[in-house]
Structure formats: structure tokens, C-alpha cells
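Encode chain A's predicted structure.
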Amino acid sequence: MNHSADNDKESISQEQSVSKIDSSRKKSERILTTANAITLARMLLVPVVFFLIIDGRFSLLAFAIFALAGLTDMLDGYVARRTNSVTEFGKAIDPFVDRLLLACGVIALFIVGKLPTWILGFIVFRDFFLLSGVAIMRRITTFEIKIRYVGKMATTALLVGFAGLISGIGQMDVGLGWTDSALLPGFSHEHYLVWIWFVYIGLILSFITLLVYIWDGVQLLIKAQGEEVK
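Encoded structure for chain A:
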């Protein structure tokens, strides 16, 4: 009798464990969550901001919407963790929308002459390199590169810098005067917007992030090869 009871308890325990796994899997596969809705709303704001910047007549409105979109980047992650609704869709779409928002800002600001060509080129190259690297990693191995805090810092600095440049507020009459090149706002003799320094900080952190992710990718490939040998 005792053996039968123990077997029944073990069977119930296993069923409960399977049920919890299935429930957790279902949660991770959901799409319609509050956090994901916030992320998708941020994506819809991207073309609105782009056209407002290009238009040039509504700088403060463009700034407000861009800043709001940037703030929701922190909000959706917070909501997902607080409501225990982190999903695979959310983990995939969130960084994509971040990249989309930054691309919107940098391209629009370049078009209106507030950013030099090399900054646009660097950010486009970085995003293309990272996205291509992630795609290649997913084809080679099931191991995933974890999001690094320095990457979040880089995104935040760039969002603050772009938002400030969009607003047009904070113009300085003269730069540091270290160069005569217009390719380096703030370092030249020309007037500039103070927010460009946040952009420079974001670019430095982005370069560090790039190196860190390359290192992480190499380590994961070595780990994956080790698992195959076993």
C-alpha cells in the first residue's frame, strides 16, 4: 500500500512539473501582452517621428514623440518583468524596434544636416554587423548572446543625444576649436548643439559593445564546438 501511495505521489508530482513547464512555455509563446503592445506602439511612432523631423516645422513635437518612444523602451521591459510576461516574441521584437528608432533618428538628422556622414555610416554598419552576426549565430548554434548592460547604456546615450538634436535647443556659439573640420561638431570652431556630446558618448559605448559582442560570439562558437565533440 505504501509503495502504491508513493508511486501515486510521484506521478502527481511529475504531472504538476509537466503542467508548470507547459504553462511557462505557453506564456513565453504569447504575443498579445501589455509589454509587447507597448513595443509595437513604439514601432508605430517611428515613421511619425521621421516625417516630423524631415518636415522641420514641428521640432518640439518631433522631440516629444521621439523622447516618448525612447522612454517606452524601458517601460516595456519593466512591465514584462513585473507581470511575468516575458515572451520570445518580445525578446526578438524589442531590440529590432530599438534599432529601428535609432535608425530613424540618425537618418532623419543626417538628411536635415544635423549629423555628419560618418556617424550615419558607423551606426548603419554597427547595426548591420550585429544583426547579421545574430542571424549567423542562430543558424550555427542554439546558444544565444546575452544582452549586455553596456549596449543598453549606448542606446540610452544615443537616444538622449538624438532627442536633443531633434529639439534644436541648446545651441553653443563656438566649439572647442581643435579642428576646422565640419565633420566633428563640437570640436570645430563652428556653433553646435550641446547634445552632440551624448552622441559621441553613445558612439564610444557602441564601439565597446561591438567588441564585447564579437568576443561573446567567439566564446559561444567555441562552446558549441565543444558540445559537438562530446
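DSSP finds seven helices and two strands in the chain.
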